[in-house]
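Researcher: Hi, I'm a grad student and pretty new to this. My advisor asked me to get structures for two proteins we've been looking at. I'm not sure of the right format, so I'll just paste the first sequence and hope you can take it from there.
Model: That works fine. Here's the first sequence with its structure tokens right after it:
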Amino acid sequence: MKPLALPGAVVVITGAARGIGLATATAFASAGAIVYTGDLETVAPELPTDLVGRIHGPWPLDVTSRESYLSFVDTVIADSGRIDILVNNAGVMPLGRFLDEPDDLSRTILDVNVWGLIHGMRLVLPDMIARGNGHVVNIASMAGKIPFPGMAVYNASKYAAVGLTAAVRRELHGTGVTASAVLPSAVRTSLSSGVRLGGVMPTVDPSDVASAVLRTCRTRQAEISVPRWLRPGWKALDGLTPTSLVALGMRLLGDDRGLHADPAARSAYAARVSNFSTSR
């Protein structure tokens, strides 16, 4: 597959009011793309002067609602005529013991992290296929490869995101359209607030994830981890090391930090997710 030309490309990014989404929007705009963003939060972020006019939005978007997603896509098409690249970034990461997590919150995790991808791809891919060109990037997580105590349903959603992307990619073979999964480790955003970082998972910045997203547009690679060595490194470790030793090593490195997050430091993020969950 040929690399996608980014100057003039029309890019759609969900969950782009902050964090990874905003960093990705900035990176695409800096590369000359025209970027449309959607989010539950619609306050426009402050942008560098040279990017004003290249990043539009955020428009109101609830990725759990097909109707909301369709309205967002229709707005972009009406303004730009097409979508060349879709970045399904919106996601939530509540933490806590599996048995203590309310059903409504578990449904929200799956609706945002899995159904958000499904809605986006089903709405955007048909036109890409008809034009014979396009690319979808689903922001998954290394939690889609490695299980962590304290985020069981989040783990399930990211395993689903990895498998969904891989299967859709196979179905797209020969169409000129590709799908890639980007798997970050721990990222310094509000999702990880209150969690002691480092140790079991290397910590990266949103800009590192944004760079990986843009890289998939050049390489059309199926999966890429952030940092790049992490996925192949884990695959080798998991494949060559006895399960009991891997589990012991993970415990020693503190893989259960999701069970011990600082409630005060995490309160603002937890309240935001809880309010969305209960208002649906």
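Researcher: Oh nice, that was easy. Here's the second one.
Model: And its structure:
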Amino acid sequence: MTPLFADLTGDIEISFEFFPPKTEKMDAALWETVQALAPLGPRFVSVTYGADGSTRDRTHATVTRIAQETGIPAAAHLTCVGASKSEVLDIARAYWEAGVRHIVALRGDPPQAGQRFTPHPQGFANATELTAALKAVAPFEVSVAAYPECHQDSASPEADLDNLKAKIDAGADRAITQFFFAPETFLRFRDRAAASGITAEIVPGILPVSNVAQTRKFARQCGAEIPAWMDRLFEGLDERPETRQLVAAAIAAEMCRKLYDGGVRHFHFYTLNRAALCYSICHLLGKTAATAIRAAA
């Protein structure tokens, strides 16, 4: 039997998501992460945006710095929450002027958990409207969100796919999925999307489990299912961070390997501003600094 990670050629593309730092210490930690992952040659990196717009300035500063100082294509998250159309598009224009050419266009979540999304009175109602408006402002590359386990506000999986198709039809270049923990969840969703007429690239979002309690919270908020077997593997590891990291890397790498067998060649990692887990998973998949240099040559 061939070992699971034997002789992979590194013929994958990767991208990473960061969140804007709140303090100088967090800023230093983020830049250590960026510098650690940069040699892997990411296709792009993205920076998140607070649900209530509270991180707007920090997101802009982080994206602009990445774009100007690293040479890595940087994407800024932009949401419809808490701002008028003119305010949102002013932000988009400022990104374009700063050299940022890629936007991750999102409806955004309500500021308070459990609330329903209510558009700003003069704002965009959803990511479809936002995507169309961004494309009218400038020839941005636009990524949008997709939900393999169905968005919690969608009436049905079919309605959720219809919404994704509307975003693609509005001009989105690709979709990046919410995280999931079973490869078949993504593969079935990808096949359903193709059957519904969606031809744009759909990139799986991968969340390595660095903090189990935090991951459970994230999963509850977005409706992602944590398999019982995976939950059991982390039992008793709350006070054993090194062991937890090893287990997390093994789980995520095996899932990515199965996705690779299913034809996936681009993986988007939710880093939580930590490099080690994502770096190790990429290495197991054959994506190393050396293969990145060969791919760029």
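Researcher: Is there anything I should tell my advisor about the second?
Model: You could mention this: The longest helix spans residues 241-261.
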